[in-house]
Amino acid sequence: MDSSVLLSTDELRVRTGSREPLDLAVLSGSLLVILGDDTTVAPDLARVLAGKIPPASGRILLEDVGIELGSSEARGIVEYVPGNPSFPSGITLRDHLTMAAAAAGHRRKRTGEILAQLMSWCSLEEYAGSKVMELPEETRYMAAFAAACLPVPGILVLQGPFPGELNPLLEDLCQGGASVIACLPGLEHMPQSADRIALCDARDVRRIVRFGELSEACSSLMRLRVKFFPALPRAVMESLPGARHVVAVPGGYEFLHRGLSAAVTNLVNLARANSRQIAGLEVRSPSISELVEHFTAEEETGEADLFCGEDLDI
Amino acid sequence: MRGRPGYLRIWFSVVRCMARRAVRREVFPWIALGAPLAAWLLPGQATIPIMPFAISAVTWCLPAAFMAGWPGSADRNALAGLLHGSRAGRYSLIIPEMTLPIMAGSLPALLMIRALHTGGGGIPWQVWTVIPFASLTAASATLLLQTYFGTTGNLINLTGFMAQASLASWSGSGIFQLLVPHGYTLWTIRWAEGSGTALHGDIYAFFAVLEGIGLAILSFRVLSQGNRGRR
Question: In this complex, do A105 and B2 lie within 8 Å of one another by their Cβ atoms?
């Protein structure tokens, strides 16, 4: 994979109250997830990286040659798909994409062919003649994504959550050398191909972790809620191998466990040994604030490796 | 192979979108027909020729009807979202959205003035000049008043339009006629017909051009900032 830097930030502060400036590098072919809901800095960071709003301070540079975001040279390099895309009323999907193709500079003669390929890739053929504003929300998002792909951007910034059908298309884009920055409100929306995940709180990006690290943290912070029939005494429940922080909740218990499969096996064995049935089992992933707490608690003093230095061979 | 943006295709799409939105709105006939009718009902109007007033109304009201509510509309924001970040740039949106109201006001007015003068005698150049620039002023003034003053701006716009039709003595003063751009077309046509106006036709033409260009520059600035940071 080509590891050239497509986007980098220099002393970037998204909001005026940020504690530390963000120095971030987005590599070619990578998928960066900005994880945080609307109460965090994540949606604003995505808009700042897309050039939709100015940062409180700092610069965003594109490509290795250092084109500044917002300059005329930067036009068409970064495309943005908002969370709730809007379209002119009464316009059909084909007309909308035709206009987007014209804006992107595709020649009229080739537009039909390009749109046919694009709609096929995005599974939008059947909606070509439909009015975009009358389409289901997920299809509208796909339409906005298709329009954003027409200029063939180097970096695509997506404000999520987005439909699951988009994940393989994002992988295709990354394989083609583009970078994708996706702002997502929760772990359940995370695409499999995410490389790095920026964990956000209300003021800052607190930590950037790899997918594997996040996966491991999620596994260790995973909370299970189980209900038995008939009810199981607490002392027996606390004897469950690997269970930590067991608390009683209405109708059952909630606890932490390092591995889901081991936890389920142990629960089944526990229920069988005590002649109980498992009446309910719920797995809860950790919240973003719990993840932030988990990663920052083990952080040593000093600056975080926001560049992920080894990716850059530095 | 990609080349320059297809400006004509974009302009056509923007014009179509703007026109479709305008004619669907309930307020469109009120501005385009209701305002001239209200002005025509002012005392004394029925005693003077209708055509100069009708031409003036077309020149102002049609651009205002197309522009009213457009800059902050969801349709306009959606187009800006698509076009502002593209290679086509924001001017491919602004040019057609200014051109449509101007054409909607000036083309019918020019045809009407042509029809009015079929009986002989040339049409002074001042009239040809004032009509398109008055439409440009109408579109820009509607946009700017609405942007900076909201509903109050719309009321100011309507008051200005009604005032041009007034036959009160104060409306005949030169200062008043220069302060109310809504009436430049009406007064220039009356001057061309020799119906005694406060100022020479050159003055109206000069101010129409001056105000038209000045307000258009301000409008371009407002429209080009439109979409940044809205989402």
Answer: yes
Residue A58 host element (H or E): strand A57-62
SS3 state at A101: helix
CB contact under 8 A, B20 and A47: no
pTM for this prediction: 0.79
Distance from CA of A102 to the nearest CA of B (A): 4
> A8: which strand partners?
A25, A61
Same domain, A243 and A207: no
Tell whether A134 and A191 lie within a shared domain: yes
Cα A133 to its chain centre, rounded Å, is 25
Q: Are residues A55 and A17 in the same domain?
A: yes
Across the interface, of A89, A99, A107, the residue whose CB is closest to B13 is A99
* Reported ipTM: 0.74
Residue B136 tokens, joined: 């440009």
Tally of domains within chain B: 1
Q: pLDDT tens digits for chain A (314 residues)?
A: 456 888 888 888 888 888 888 888 899 999 999 999 889 999 999 999 988 888 888 888 887 666 777 666 677 788 899 988 888 888 899 999 998 888 888 888 888 899 999 999 999 999 999 999 899 999 999 999 999 998 888 899 999 788 989 999 999 999 988 999 999 998 888 888 899 999 998 888 888 999 999 988 888 888 899 999 998 999 899 898 888 889 998 888 999 887 888 889 999 999 999 999 999 999 888 888 888 888 887 655 545 555 555 555 54
B212, B106 in Cβ contact below 8 A?
Answer: no
Please, which residues 53-92 of chain B have a Cβ atom closer than 8 Å to chain A?
74-75, 77-79, 81-83, 85-89, 92
Q: Is-contact B225 B149, C-beta < 8 A?
A: no
What is the domain-level CATH number for residue A232?
Answer: 3.30.70
Q: Are residues A120 and A252 in the same domain?
A: no
Q: And the tokens for B170?
A: 């104060």
Residues A249, A127 within the same domain:
no
Mutate to test the interface with A, among B1, B7, B11, B13 (most CBs of A within 10 A): B13
**Nearest one of A282, A287, A85 to A185, comparing CA atoms:** A287
A53:B229 CB<8 A: yes
Question: Would you call A100 an interface residue with chain B, using a CB distance cutoff of 8 Å?
Answer: yes
